[in-house]
Every structure is written in structure tokens, then in C-alpha cells.
Amino acid sequence: MFNLEKLVRKNILALQQYSSARDEYKGKDAIFLDANENPFGELNRYPDPKQLELKKQLGKIKNIPAENIFIGNGSDEVIDLAYRIFCEPGKDKALTFTPTYGMYDVSAGINDVELIKVPLTDDFQINFAATESYLQDENLKLIFICSPNNPTGNNIDNIEKIIEKFNGIIFIDEAYIDFSNAESFLKKISQYPNIIISQTFSKAWGLAAARVGTAYSSKAIIDLYNKVKPPYNVSKLNQDEALKTLLATDDFENIKKIILAEREKLIKNLSSLPIVKKIYPSDANFILVEVDDANKTYETLVEAKVITRNRNNVVRNCLRITVGSEEENGRLVASLNPSEGGT
Ligand SMILES: Cc1ncc(COP(=O)(O)O)c(C=O)c1O
Predict the structure, then answer these.
(1) Looking at the whole model, is its pTM more than 0.90?
(2) Do 302 and 221 reside in the same domain of the chain?
(3) 26 in a domain, yes or no?
(4) Is 283's C-beta closer than 6 angstroms to any atom of ligand 1?
């Protein structure tokens, strides 16, 4: 049985949330002498710690109440706070399916939590037989599932099989979901009290510089996130930019369409190159490409001032290539094409 109180670290349950005078007075028409701010300037006031306007707009688009939304300083903060809420350092464990996004491991290390890594199958899906034995470990508190997965690019199937068998928290990282045909788990947060869905403004919304990530979950879990976050974790500048972007949904749809069309063109153009051995199917804005010799190709591209991600150490002879603009993709392909002076 899922029991949230049992999963949360005792010190977090007992924690008294930081509160400011503005949590008590909600109006905007007063003289504010409560937070030792400077009375002069445009950015002199602390931002809304609950980011209510942003949550309201996001809630409208996602069809989710504000109380089920947490805004983080990038989704990297959302990942880190999950460890801090649920995993006792030096005692509790988390699990993920590799290869996957590197921050689950880095955050585990920072929080002194053991991260169990279960390899994905050859077609980059969950190996349920290899996972099963871990699910009953009462120190296992968190499972990270990245779908579409980074760096493999594919949707992960049958996530519900894990949700139904595990009584801890399942963290579904949907950073790339806007590029995928798969349905988000957002609609399932009322059905499953043990899931956290993480999304971000850094990919399809084009706001990586602003650092705005989101978590969607039960009110009880979102309350815990609010309890442990630094009070002003998302600056006013970042909140404003995210809100502006949300109000321009036509731009969002158009850009997404362009990136998806470029992805198909890039796959086609790369497939005709002699050094390319395999291109894995992608549900994201990047593709995983197997070449003859990834280290060599990576260096060739660096010399041409085209920077890709060498994933040779996690998937043999593979580069992860982000889908760029038409011109950027053209330069990439030309740098690898012998008939144009490339490799
Ligand atoms: C799967 C995945 N999750 C989360 C992140 C972090 O995103 P953010 O910019 O929101 O911190 C990334 C960044 O590349 C990612 O690939």
C-alpha cells in the first residue's frame, strides 16, 4: 500500500516551512517595509514565492489546478528536491534505467543516496524481469523514468506496470514530451497518488536560459515540494518570461512543427552518409546516431565547430545530435559528407 507519510523523510515531515509577511498579507496596495528590500528600482521587490500567475496560466493550458503544480529553477531542481524529500542520505535508495539523463546520478551523489541502475533492453525499454526484485526493497523510495528517454530518444512503454507494482514514488521525466506522440501522464495524477511528472520550459518552449521547470503531482506531494524549496527559487524575470511564452502558444506550435520536420529531414540526410551505421527512432528533439567511430567523428565535428554529444561511453559509437535550425543541420551534414569535404 502506498503511504506518503511513511515515504517522506522524518525531518521534512517535521519541517516548519519558511514564511514571510507576504504570506500573511496578500494585497498589492500597501507600503511594504517587511522584507528589507530597497524602495527604489524595478526589480527591487522579491518575486511571488508561489508563482501564482504562472501556475494559473499553465493550469489553463494543461487543465490542472494550480495546487497540483510546482515551479522549479529548471527541472534539475525538481529532480534534486525529490531526493531531498524522500531519501534519507546514506540509507535510502533510488533506481533508474540506463542509459538515461545524467542528473539522476549526480543528484543522488550530492544527496548521498545510492542509485540502482538497471540497464534498458537492446531496444531501450524497461527490463521488467531485471527490475522486479528491487521493487520490494523498503529502502527504495524513488524510481526515475525518463520518457522520451535521453539519450536514446524513444518513449518508454508500459510505465504503468511499474507504477502499479511499486509503493514508492515514480518520477516520470517528460522533458521531451512535447516532441512525442505518446500521451503525457499528466492526466493520471489523480489516478496515481505516487507519481510526479516533471516537464520543462527548456526544450519545446525554448526557454533554457530562463531556468523554469515544473512538477505535477498530488496536492500532498506538491505541498512537500513547496515546503523544502528555497522561498524565492524562481526569479521575477524568469516567471515573467515563462508567462509571456505561455501566452504565445501559436509560436510554440509553429516552432515545434519546424523542429519535427527538421528532425525527419536530418534523419534522411544523415542516413545517406557512409559513416552512419544506424539512426535510432526518435520521439524527441535529438537523435542518437551510431557511426563507425564516435570519438573520431566527434573530433572531426569539433574541428568544423559543430558540437554534438559524444555518448560513446554509454551507447557504443553513438553521438547524440540535437535537431537544430535548417542551416545548422545543413552544416552538420556537410561536415560529415566526403563529397563536400567532410569525413
Ligand atoms: C531528461 C531531462 N530532464 C531534465 C533536464 C533538465 O532540464 P531543465 O533545463 O529544466 O533543468 C534535461 C536537460 O537536458 C533532460 O534531458
Answers:
(1) yes
(2) no
(3) no
(4) no
